[in-house]
Amino acid sequence: MRTEFERVHVTKHGAVAVLALNHPEVMNAASLKMLRGINAALDHVENAESGFRALVLTGEGKGFCSGANLSEAPEMDGRRYGIGDTLELGYHPLLRRLRDFRMPIVAAVNGAAAGVGMSLALMADVVIAARSAYFLQAFARIGLVPDGGSTWLLPRLVGSARARELSLLAEKLPAEKALAWGLISRVSDDDSLMKDALQIAQRLAEGPTQTYALVRELYWKSLHNSFEEQLDCERHAQEKAGRTADFAEGVRAFLEKRPAKFQGR
What we know:
CATH architecture of the largest domain: Alpha-Beta Complex
Largest sheet: 7 strands, mixed
CATH topology of the largest domain: 2-enoyl-CoA Hydratase, Chain A, domain 1
Strand content: 15-25%
Radius of gyration: 19 Å
Number of domains: 2
Helix content: 40-55%
Order of helices and strands: EEEHEEEEHEEHEEHHEHEHHHH
Distance between the termini: 25 Å
Strand order of the largest sheet: 1-2-3-4-8-10-13
Number of strands: 13
């Protein structure tokens, strides 16, 4: 079943939602129209009645997301905005929403992930790229600085030297090299990308969803916490996890030597 939104659609695969950017004419270049569509689609995915427990992000056509749509002037409520305002009013809320999302996210990068499209991909917990895909910090090519949180994400993923190289030289980073650098999780053959992404997402959808949300929160906090602060965060998160029905089921399944049947509660 497919549900349409503005330049985005969501396809249901059991408990997995596949959210596809859908403006292939411009390789899914992001615009404020698309951002509205993404947020509406995420509202749909998060609706408890939908039954979704994992999310796959991908793009229609030959690209994941080629960056910001430079052919469309950013406009909200009839007013045009500067680039900085557009980031704060449009892109930043979406990035924060993906950071705080309450279910695991898998990115299936099916082609170019450039500019802010690269940042969108890197917000996922598991990033799988097609063998022909590539990543590109394209900003310097048009006289802009990296955005979308990339100057925070990249040094933590690949180190400062490689992050600076990617941003200053603005060269394509092929999927295989991105894997070797630790930027992404896996590489798949082009024709098996979605199959592999769905397989991982379905496995996550069958797991303890509330626990996964706590795991996501812990790893994001760990990037700026001290060791002592992180130990405290783990204690509080474990208290919450220990009160879930899934923890009780996990213990029963362990003692009964059977696979656990998690309900996401």
